[in-house]
Design goal:
The protein is α+β, with helices and mostly antiparallel strands. The chain has 2 domains: about 45 residues; about 100 residues, no CATH class. The protein has 7 helices and 6 strands; from the N terminus they run E-E-E-E-H-H-H-H-H-H-H-E-E. Strands 1, 2, 3, 4, 5 and 6 form a 6-stranded mixed β-sheet that branches. A hairpin with a 6-residue loop joins strand 1 and strand 2. Helix 1 packs antiparallel against helix 5 and helix 3 packs across helix 4. It is elongated and about 50 Å long. The two termini are about 30 Å apart. The mean pLDDT is about 90.
Amino acid sequence: MGTAECSDCGRKARITTGDYRFDEVGLPVLLKNVELIDCRECGAVSPVIQDMNGLMDVIAFAVVAHPCKLKGAEVRFLRKYLGMDGNEFSKLIEIDRTTLSKWENDQTDIGKHSDRLIRFVVVGQSADLRRWMERFMEKYKELTDCEPSRKPQLKIDSETLEYEYA
């Protein structure tokens, strides 16, 4: 396909296409059919993400629209997506900072009403997600108190930014 400079060692690396586990966001996300900078010298593999903001919007929407209870890593991702620290976010949803920390570290379950509040606050605070409000409201009707049978993985097509939980 071509070559590019490796972001780790600075040497010439080849560009390929493939799947990439994008764990950098703190959630199990698999980018499908993404360009990869694959360095044979140092072994680093880095994705080429054309629209990082769009990707973060899709991940955030997928999290708030997922029908099962929010987990700690998802709450942490949503808080960071909004660009807030723990104090700001806990004040926004009117809880103690310690409670937020316990939620984010899966030390305490998030109650049903707090779960719903977090989802609405995130959609309401993000101009990019507000444009999907109608779609969110349809997904909101499907929310349950289910616990996923396993840790779901979010799969995102890097070109279309369409997603699925698998």
